[in-house]
Design a protein that fits this description.
243 residues; 8 helices; mainly alpha; single chain; 87% helix; Serine Threonine Protein Phosphatase 5, Tetratricopeptide repeat
């Protein structure tokens, strides 16, 4: 009985020892697994941290480059657009300035034309020669080389029995317009009044060469009556009648 009891005690001790060994081994395995898992997770996080750092650095540099490039391109595009619109605005300003100048010129020309028209109407309505002279002077003040005003003023000078004045006015008209038929005709009338019949016939010939309308005036103009006794004038009349 003592031996059986001892055997049971030994077997219980062995069982306890075996259980303890198994427990220790499992504990050790668990510790190793936990340590491995901890190391793996740590290495994984280290890897992620390293990769993240690289990506952050590379990404930051790329983003910065992209940002700089975008800003640079944007500045270039904006500068180009500003330059284009500045050119367009400059062209518009030039055109507006030209149109304004043209408008002012046209307005001034219209005002001048209206004033001249009014003066010519007044000259046609005036009955006194002095008033006509004053009106023609106003026209010539606005247009100093107006040959029509000069020749009509010469006509009034002849009315005032100032043939030499008429000659000077007609010469001024011919200086601006060498083919002015009216100036030649008025010269003929002026030289008739000055009894210079050769010059009168010469200028009548010049007038007829430029305008056929003076044919009727040769026969009806009182200023040319003194020429009717002058043979070259009669010859000129004969040629006119034959034509």
């Amino acid at each position: 009985m003592d031996e059986l009891k001892q055997l049971r005690t030994d077997m219980a001790a062995q069982k306890h020892e075996m259980i303890q060994q198994i427990f220790d081994r499992e504990l050790n395995s668990i510790d190793l697994g936990v340590e491995y898992a901890t190391d793996t997770i740590s290495y994984f996080f280290y890897l992620i941290a390293g990769a993240s750092s690289i990506l952050v650095l590379v990404g930051w540099s790329s983003i910065r480059d992209i940002k700089e490039r975008v800003h640079s391109n944007a500045d270039q595009q904006v500068a180009g657009l500003i330059g284009t619109y500045e050119d367009r605005l400059r062209n518009i300003e030039i055109r507006l300035s030209q149109k304004t100048e043209l408008y002012e010129e046209n307005r001034a020309e219209i005002a001048l034309t209206q004033e001249l028209h009014s003066l010519w109407l007044r000259a046609g309505q005036d009955t006194g020669p002095h008033n006509k002279i004053a009106t023609y002077d106003q026209i010539l003040k606005l247009q100093p080389e107006d040959t029509e005003a000069l020749t009509y003023k010469a006509d009034v000078a002849l009315e005032l029995e100032e043939p030499q004045w008429a000659v000077n006015l007609c010469n001024q008209a011919l200086a601006s317009d060498p083919d002015n038929g009216h100036a030649f005709y008025q010269l003929a009338c002026a030289y008739t009044a000055l009894n210079q019949f050769d010059e009168a016939v010469r200028y009548l010939t010049e007038a007829l060469a430029r305008a056929e309308t003076y044919r009727d005036d040769l026969l009806s103009d009182a200023a040319l009556v003194p020429l009717k006794s002058y043979e070259p004038f009669n010859q000129l009349l004969g040629r006119v009648r034959e034509d």
